[in-house]
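BUG-303 | component: ligand-complex export | severity: low

The export step for PMV jobs runs without errors, but we want the raw record kept on the ticket for reference. Input record follows.
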Amino acid sequence: MTKTCSAPGKIYVFGEHAVVYGKRAIASAINLRTTATVTESNQTEIKSPLGTTGIDYMVHPYISRCIEHLSIPAVSIRIDSEIPVGSGLGSSAAAVIATLGALNAEFDLGMTRTAIAEAGHQIEREVQGAASPTDTFVSTMGGTVVITPGQSPPASAKLRLIDCDIVVGDTREFSSTKELVGNVRILHERYPDIMNPIFDIIDSLSEIGVPLIERGDYRSVGELMNIDHGLLDAIGVGSAKLSALVYAARDAGAYGAKITGAGGGGCIVALADDAEAVASEINDAGGNAIITKASREGVRVRT
Ligand code: PMV
């Protein structure tokens, strides 16, 4: 038997990095998806754009961990993705959730969505050392979501789906989430009295952002995203390229623009009314623009 399952990537409206310190974050699933196709086989095989391997923690750490986590018989898994890898769009979480969803369907494991999200979060933590539940939760459940990570399981609530255009600008520079989270941790250890208030302000951006998103007031959401970008720059996860794309998007009339995800390289996100103008300005500034929309749909088994 063959089972195919897909799961979305995500953008952060507010709260990356602060969420690692228990602060609230708002994120949204987007219309870029990763697909996992699972087929019965007498030998375990993982195929992706990174190559073809068996269980291999160097090339395919996330998928290898999914297979071992579920203790299932040998399978062949193929991963196809529309999400740029290591760019802050949750490519690893989407691959993990799509794989768990496909294995759940193939082997009738009876996992609920909540169980898939929790297993996905555990797998991300095991592979990366630290990970907030945001990526795996949003990829499983879909929608625009506010996450409060300080509880177990993390509290979360679906918000009105963002319905303006979303433009992602990819710097095409790989960034390591683990390394950036580590750099922020060092700053936090050295200057807790500076870093804690910054994380508290980011928490307030998420709090104030909830009713604005519910009302569809993207102009105000954009203003707060611009503030968040400045704070992300302040905690050392910005770069000249990221800011060039952020300013290009704002100059083209975006409601707001900021880093999305770990930073360092990777992507920015802009909310926009005229997505074409914003995308063209991002491309002119040397980025790769992707016009997308928020997605209501989380993990989905193709029947
Ligand atoms: O770059 P991404 O998509 O892996 O997002 C990282 C977001 C952080 O808040 C920096 C880390 C996390 O686990 O939430």
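Assignee comment: Attached the raw record above. The chain has a mean pLDDT of 95.
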